[in-house]
Amino acid sequence: MILPEALPALAAGGSLVLVLCLNEFGIVLFTGAKGVTTLPMLVYSKAILESDYPGACVVAVVNVLISVGLYGLYRVVSRRVGA
After folding, report:
1. How far is CA 51 from CA 17, 47, 55, in A?
2. 75: Cβ–Cβ under 8 A, 6 or more apart, which residues?
3. Chain-centre distance of CA 17, in angstroms?
4. Theoretical Cys-Cys bridge with 74: which of 15, 22, 53, 59, CB 3.0 to 4.6 Å?
């Protein structure tokens, strides 16, 4: 009985955490996590380290599209669950 009432909050929290994890740059950069490549780290390595600006732009656009798509999905799910 509790799960159906908590489902909107769980969906909202999970989607926000997922979006934040996709866009995390600072923690991965400053902790020096070996073998961890997130999309922002890939943009940074292509643009700054490799000087591959078109490749960095493509990865950045993919990152933005994923973030906007997940946010749109969150809005649709929260609207349907709330209705």
Report:
1. 31, 5, 9
2. none
3. 8
4. 15
Amino acid found at 7: L
CA dihedral 11, 27, 57, 59 (to 10 degrees): -50
- Maximum alpha-carbon separation in the chain: 55
**What 8-state DSSP symbol labels residue 35?**
T
Name the residue among 1, 30, 34, 20 with its Cα closest to residue 63. Answer: 20
Q: Give me the helices (H) in the chain, please.
A: 2-22, 26-31, 39-44, 53-82
Contact partners, residue 24, CB within 8 Å, separation at least 6: 38, 40
Collapsing DSSP states into helix, strand and coil, what is residue 25?
Answer: coil
The tens digit of pLDDT for each residue in 27-79 reads 777 777 777 777 888 888 899 999 999 999 999 899 889 888 988 988 898 88
